[in-house]
Design goal:
This protein is mainly alpha-helical. The chain is built from twelve helices and four strands, in the order H-H-H-H-H-H-H-H-H-E-E-H-H-H-E-E. The strands form two sheets. The protein has a two-stranded antiparallel sheet. It has a two-stranded antiparallel sheet with strand order 3-4. It is elongated, with a radius of gyration of 26 Å. The two termini are 33 Å apart.
Length: 307
């Protein structure tokens, strides 16, 4: 039994169900903060002044920043066409809501919470280490300026990238439509994502932007540590649920025995009835099932699709 299995057995109720839904709500709130900051609604950047992960301010009593920094502003909404930016933000939010929900179904609430909240913790720890190192280099009198600049630069962009990488690792053949047209498998997009992470890592080092390096390192370390300790497998409860679903699927889709005395032309794949059993029954093929499966009117809209 690995460490994550033991933790799950010890704290089975740990976790926030449907965590990704709340993450998306927080991102929407962050987008609104970004718009208000960009348009000077409050006269000064409210996020950087009161909410960001500014460790100088935290060490001086503003401990709420350890929580409120998750409301990081999406600054891109204030640049270019507002309509286009909102559309792309909505697509991004839906995509990551889908990915997070699928991971939670696969892993269970405990493991997905451990993965995502652990990633946030790694972001906090790497940012703290970067702040302390810079204060040691440039002097503690530079703490207010360093805290302000570093805290305002903390985002979850790379943590969200690892959410996609985790999904691609578990479902490599899942297909997405890039720009709603070009079919791409998850594993291909994952390699592109890894290449972009490596490229950004090198660019940050070349330009001396080490705060970006810390964000990438924190997100990737969380990803590697989680999969090393838990091997990305689903929880015991999730495995049991999956086995039950597979058994139910096999039961519902197994070949039906011929109707005694000669079967009719049409036969329901669920109940096995034909038009000879009840002349009033209507039969239709399901376009969403993978194969020629025919259902009676009682089961056409209630059956589990065959994939």
């Amino acid at each position: 039994m690995n460490i994550i299995d033991r933790l799950e057995r010890k704290f089975p109720r740990f976790g926030i169900p449907h965590l990704m839904k709340y993450v998306i709500i927080i991102n929407i709130a962050g987008a609104l903060f970004g718009l208000m900051d960009a348009n000077g609604v409050f006269g000064r950047p409210i996020y950087a002044s009161y909410l960001s992960l500014d460790f100088n301010a935290i060490f001086h009593g503003q401990v709420w920043r350890l929580i409120t920094f998750v409301l990081y502003p999406v600054r891109d909404l204030s640049q270019g066409s507002m309509f286009i930016n909102v559309i792309w933000f909505a697509i991004w939010a839906y995509l990551y809501y889908f990915l997070g929900t699928m991971l939670e179904k696969w892993w269970g609430t405990f493991r997905f919470n451990l993965f995502y909240l652990g990633g946030i913790l790694f972001v906090v720890l790497t940012t703290l280490a970067f702040y302390l190192v810079n204060c040691g280099i440039y002097g503690w009198e530079q703490g207010p300026l360093l805290g302000y600049m570093i805290g305002y630069s903390v985002t979850f962009e790379y943590l969200n990238e690892t959410v996609f990488l985790a999904f691609a690792l578990l479902q490599p053949d899942a297909q997405f439509l890039l720009y709603f047209v070009i079919p791409f498998k998850a594993k291909w997009m994952a390699w592109i994502s890894i290449g972009l992470l490596a490229f950004n890592f090198i660019i940050y080092i070349m330009h001396g932007q080490y705060y970006g390096v810390t964000l990438i390192v924190g997100a990737v370390l969380n990803f590697l540590l989680f999969f090393f300790l838990g091997r990305g497998k689903p929880s015991v409860h999730a495995q049991h649920t999956q086995r039950k679903r597979q058994q139910e699927f096999r039961r519902r889709t197994r070949p039906l025995e011929p109707t005694p005395g000669g079967g009719g032309i049409h036969r329901c794949a669920i109940c096995g009835r034909t038009e000879k059993d009840d002349p009033r029954l209507e039969f239709r093929y399901c376009t969403k099932c993978n194969g020629d499966y025919e259902y009676c009117s009682d089961h056409l809209f209630t059956h589990t699709h065959v994939n």
